[in-house]
From TrEMBL:
Molecular-function GO term, any one: hydrolase activity, acting on carbon-nitrogen (but not peptide) bonds
Protein name: Amidohydrolase
Tagged with keyword Hydrolase: yes
Domain Amidohydrolase-related per the UniProt entry, residue ranges: 49-419
Gene3D superfamilies noted in UniProt: Metal-dependent hydrolases (3.20.20.140), Urease, subunit C, domain 1 (2.30.40.10)
Length: 471
């Protein structure tokens, strides 16, 4: 398809310009004033045009756990997550559908889905999520979340103290599974890419990291993990490696320009230097970090050191939504309290840059997409500047990032295809989707959590908290 966007407002330096934009095939063909109309003319007057954002870290299946899990620290919250994880392939499909729709409605055109797969149905799980993303028309990187160590290995002193069984899949079995997933579902030409997704050092062996590294090299896959999300993980790194988890991952050769690291909260100055040296990306998930009490990532220090930083929503079990604009706002303003020098604070325009080109840098596509540049792929979003939440007519980007935009997205193009127009999704029947999801939840019931009772006392002891039941 070919489009000409008429009279769109775009940011230029510290101001704005009104331009026409031509889209031919999947590319931005021209940007300028008074361009001839080619293809379908789109009235973009009084609309802000920005590149699409990247939801740099999500767990789509957690769509079903929105509003479900109590406020707990990660290590206990995760026990409740595992006890309530969906087990049906249709839920995997619908969770990816919901994640894609929510991301699009908040300005995102790409998602990194660190996907929980159903045991014994791993290939089918990937296929279900892939089908959903293709139907919606969003870009997706699917990183199957894998581990080869038991649940208790994620706790300091967990393996030597808590009862456990070996993990049910061996390292070799997991790597063979990943090869099969790549063969089945890696389809960059369709906007769907497989990434390697070992959950993190806390539940993954060196052999699994090395195998994923090699798989990434063979197929040029992105690499995506959780990194030092909590103080407990910092303690665990010291216990396991006698020092830095970041340095250890560097020694394994896992960190490079294709690597994105979710959270990255408990890093020191030496760790930050490693990230800058290896050109790794940090994905900042401020909302989940606050909900779980994990801490505040040193994002201003990352930026000052030249580390690429993107934004993510994280899973809906720790965010209770997938709103990119909300994630960007909180992820920007939060750091005003971490540095008294306001010259270091993240401006709204810097936040847009981090969410777009920063996000696409994290998935190794910055040379192809992520900015309003002729020749790049057309992942574009129009925002309606007559929407009440973007009024009065002060500064559109400040209103978008610092305000509370409500249904402000007017149109979205992904790889040159218009998937959202005039406030309506063109690819999927959203009313049928919402009714289907509603029908899954006919009865509101409290889940039965079991795993937390097996680990809570241990967690409180190693973290220096009062024993359960103590005042």
């Amino acid at each position: 398809m070919t489009y000409t966007l008429r009279s769109a407002l775009i940011p230029v330096e510290d101001s704005y310009a009104t331009v026409d934009v031509q889209i031919e095939g999947d590319r931005i063909a021209a940007i300028g004033a008074s361009l001839p109309t080619v293809g379908t003319a789109i009235d973009a007057e009084n609309k802000l045009l920005l590149p699409g954002f990247v939801n740099g870290h999500a767990h789509s299946v957690q769509f079903w756990q929105r509003g479900l899990i109590p406020q707990l620290p990660l290590e206990l919250w995760l026990a409740d997550v595992f006890d309530t994880s969906p087990t049906e392939l249709e839920q995997t499909y619908l969770g990816a559908l919901g994640t894609a729709i929510s991301t699009l409605l908040s300005g995102g055109t790409c998602v990194m889905d660190h996907l929980y797969v159903i045991p014994g149905q791993e290939l089918e799980s990937i296929a279900a999520a892939s089908r959903a993303y293709k139907e919606v028309g969003i870009r997706a990187f699917i990183a199957p979340l894998i581990q080869d160590m038991p649940f208790v290995s994620g706790y300091p002193e967990g393996v030597k103290t808590l009862p456990h069984q070996p993990y049910h899949q061996s390292t070799d079995e997991l790597l063979a599974l990943m090869e099969a997933i790549v063969a089945q579902s890696h389809a960059p030409e369709d906007g769907i890419q497989i990434a390697v997704g070992p959950t993190g050092f806390h539940r993954c062996s060196d052999a699994l990291f090395e195998g994923c590294r090699d798989l990434s090299d063979r197929h040029n896959l992105c690499r995506h993990i959780h990194l030092l999300e909590t103080k407990a993980q910092k303690m665990l790194a010291q216990e396991r490696y006698g020092g830095s988890a970041v340095k250890h991952l560097q020694q394994l050769g896992f960190l490079d320009h294709r690597t994105s690291l979710a959270h990255s909260i408990w890093l020191d100055a030496a760790d930050i230097e490693v990230l800058a040296e290896t050109k790794s990306t940090v994905v900042h998930n401020a909302l989940s970090n606050l909900r779980l009490g994990s801490g505040i990532a040193p994002v201003l220090k990352y930026l000052q050191a030249g580390v690429n930083v993107a934004f993510g929503c994280d899973g809906a079990a720790s965010n209770d939504g997938q709103d990119m604009l909300e994630a960007i706002k909180i992820g920007s303003l939060l750091h005003n309290v971490t540095d008294p020098d306001y010259k270091h604070w993240i401006t709204p325009r810097k936040a847009v840059e981090m969410a777009s080109i920063g996000g696409f840098t994290g998935v190794n596509l910055a040379d192809q997409v992520g900015s309003l540049t002729v020749g790049k792929q057309a992942d574009l979003v129009l925002y309606d500047l007559k929407n009440l939440s973007l009024l009065p007519r002060t500064d559109p980007i400040k209103l978008l990032i610092l305000g509370r935009p409500n249904a402000a997205v007017d149109s979205v193009w992904v790889r040159g295809q218009q998937v959202f127009a005039d406030g309506t999704l063109k690819t999927v029947d959203t009313s049928h989707f919402t009714q289907t999801v509603f029908n899954y939840g006919e009865v509101y019931s409290k889940p039965q959590y079991k795993t937390i009772h097996q680990v809570e006392a241990h967690y409180r002891r190693v973290m220096g908290l009062a024993e359960c039941g103590d005042a």
